[in-house]
Amino acid sequence: MSDADRLIIFDTTLRDGEQSPGASMTREEKVRIARALDRLRVDVIEAGFPAASRGDFESVQAVAETVEDARVCGLARANEADIDRAGEAVAPARAGRIHTFIATSPVHMEKKLQLTPDEVVERAVTAVKRARGLCDDVEFSPEDAGRSDPDFLCRIIEAAIDAGATTINIPDTVGYNMPRQFAGLIRSLRERVPNSDRAVWSVHCHNDLGVAVANSLAAVREGARQIECTINGLGERAGNAALEEIVMALRTRQDDFPCDTRVETREILPTSRLVSNITGFQVQPNKAIVGINAFAHESGIHQDGVLKHRETYEIMRAEDVGWGTNRMVLGKHSGRNAFRSRCDELGIRFETAAQLNEAFQRFKDLADKKHEIFDEDLQALATEAVAALEEDQGATLVAFRCCSETGETPVADVTLQVDGEEHKHSAAGDGPVDAAFKAIDGILDVSAELLLYSVNNITTGTDAQGEVTVRLERGGRAVNGQGSDTDIVIASAKAYLNALNRLRSSANRTHPQTEGV
C-alpha cells in the first residue's frame, strides 16, 4: 500500500479517551490497552500527557517501552517544560512522536491564553522547533481550528511546517463543524498553505453534534491522511470519532474512498471489550460494529433474507471484526486447554502464567454457578483476573450475607479482609445494595460520593452474570469500580469495594482533564 493509498490511524484512547470523567487508568491498564492496540495494528498510539502528572509521565514511558510496532506519541502544550517532558517519556519507543498544540480561535486566544495572534504564532514556532530537536516526528495542532479564522490558520500552519512539523492536525475541538463545512476547510487549507505538501494532514473530530465520524471521513476525501480516533468513541463530553466505525467504513466502501488502513480488523471486538471493561464505559447494544445487536436480526423478513443470502441485510461479515462464528460450549468439565484455546480465539491474551491460572480458577468457580460459559463471560473474568494480580487489592470480600423481604428493612452482613485481618460489620439500608454499601463503609470508613451505579447483564438467561459499574468521587478524583457475579447484590458489593480500593490506593491514577485538541 503506497503512502497515498494508506490512511494513518492515530489512536488517542489512552489520552483523550482517558479524559472522560471516571475513565482514568492505571499504568498497568494503559499498558494492557497499548498491547491490544499494537495487535490491532494502529499506526500511532497517543499514550498520554506526560507533563500532566508523574503518573501520566510514567504511563507514557511504560507504553513506549512496551509497544513493538506502533509509533508512541506524547501530548505537550506549546512550552519548553511540556515538550521536554514529552520527549523524555517517548524516548524509549521504537518510534516516537511529540504532539504539541496551541489554541488559535479568537475566543481561546483572547479569553484563555490572553495572547495576541503574533504571540501565538511565535509560541507555536518555538515549540515545534524545540520538539524537532528532540524527535524527528513532530505533530502540530491549532486547537479549536474549527472556529478559527482561516487566514490565521494558514499563517500559523505554514510557520509550523517551516519550523519542522511533519504532521498538521486540524481539530474540531468542540464538535461544531458539519461535514461539508469541515471538508471545505481541509480543502482550502491544503490549497492555500504554500508548503502543505511537506506534511501529512490529520483531523481530530469531537462528537458533540454526532458527526465526528462523518466529519473525519469527509476530510479524507479532501486529502487528510491521518484520523485521530478512539476505541468505542471514548472521549471528553460526547466523545471522539470511533476507530471501529472509521476503519470499517473505509474497508467496506473501498468504492467510495481512495485509501485504506492497515488495521487488523479481527482485533476490533476484543480491543473494544477490553477498553469497556477497564474504563467501565459500557457499549450500547445498537452501537455500530461492536454493539451486541450490530449483527443481530429479529425481523422475520430480515432473518429469512440473511438465511438465504447474507448480503441481503449484512454489509460486513461479523467474523471480520472479531465476532465468533462457531461457539465452543464451555462448562465445569472443560479443561485448561479448552479454556485457553477459546480465549485465544477471542483475542484474550495472558502475559504471564499467573494471569492464566487466576483466570482459569475464576472460570471454574463461575462454572459451578452456571451451566454454560459464554464468550462475554470469558471477557469479563479475564479482565478481573488480570486486574486482581496487577492492582493493590487493599480490602477483599471474604463473606457476604443479605436479608431482604417485603415490608422489612434489608440488612447486610459483610466480612472483609483488610491488611491480613478480617473485619465484620452489619448495616441496614433502603435496599440490599444500599445496605451492602453501608456495611462496607462501616469497615473502611472512606467517604465518597456515588456518581454512577450501573447494572448490565453480561449474557442472556436467568443464570447470567450481572456486571456492575460504580463510579465514586472524592476530592475531585473520580474512579470506576467493577464487579461481576451471578448474584447481582454480590456483584454490586464487589464493584463498590473495587472502587473504594482505588480511592484508598496510593497508586497514581491519572486523569489530567487539561485543555487539549
Automatic annotation (TrEMBL):
Boundaries of every Pyruvate carboxyltransferase domain copy: 7-269
EC number(s) on file: 2.3.3.13
Family: Belongs to the alpha-IPM synthase/homocitrate synthase family. LeuA type 1 subfamily.
HAMAP family per UniProt: LeuA_type1
InterPro entries noted in UniProt: 2-IPM_HCS-like (IPR050073), 2-isopropylmalate_synth_dimer (IPR013709), AIPM/Hcit_synth_CS (IPR002034), Aldolase_TIM (IPR013785), LeuA/HCS_post-cat (IPR054691), LeuA_allosteric_dom_sf (IPR036230), LeuA_bact_synth (IPR005671), PYR_CT (IPR000891)
Keyword hit for Nucleotidyltransferase: no
Catalytically driven reaction(s): 3-methyl-2-oxobutanoate + acetyl-CoA + H2O = (2S)-2-isopropylmalate + CoA + H(+)
PROSITE patterns noted in UniProt: AIPM_HOMOCIT_SYNTH_1, AIPM_HOMOCIT_SYNTH_2, PYR_CT
The protein, known as: 2-isopropylmalate synthase
Pathway in which this enzyme or protein is active: Amino-acid biosynthesis; L-leucine biosynthesis; L-leucine from 3-methyl-2-oxobutanoate: step 1/4
Subunit record text: Homodimer.
Recorded GO MF terms: 2-isopropylmalate synthase activity
PANTHER family: 2-ISOPROPYLMALATE SYNTHASE 1, CHLOROPLASTIC-RELATED, HOMOCITRATE SYNTHASE-RELATED
Annotated Mn(2+) binding sites: D16, H204, H206, N240
Lineage: Bacteria, Pseudomonadati, Pseudomonadota, Gammaproteobacteria, Chromatiales
Origin: domain of life: Bacteria
Stretch list, region Regulatory domain: 396-517
Gene: leuA
Entry function: Catalyzes the condensation of the acetyl group of acetyl-CoA with 3-methyl-2-oxobutanoate (2-ketoisovalerate) to form 3-carboxy-3-hydroxy-4-methylpentanoate (2-isopropylmalate).
Keywords of the record: Acyltransferase, Amino-acid biosynthesis, Branched-chain amino acid biosynthesis, Cytoplasm, Leucine biosynthesis, Manganese, Metal-binding, Transferase
Entry cofactors: Mn(2+)
